[in-house]
Amino acid sequence: MEEVAKNTAAEFEDADESELERRLTAMGVGTEPEQLYEALNDSEKAAFSKLVDQMHYSESGFGDSVFRSKR
Prior knowledge:
Layout: H1 2-14, H2 17-26, H3 33-38, H4 42-60
């Protein structure tokens, strides 16, 4: 599951929104967030929540230092 999450995050960074929508529609899942989440089983929901948290953490820069190094 970890490998799938890593690949998904990398693929998400490279894909454009229309391509993601096309692929989800082709799989019969739909593009509404509620539809997407309900299509997951319990372990997938847990992994998805973890992935969302990691992506939010990364995008918001919480792990970045506010201090600059002295040169």
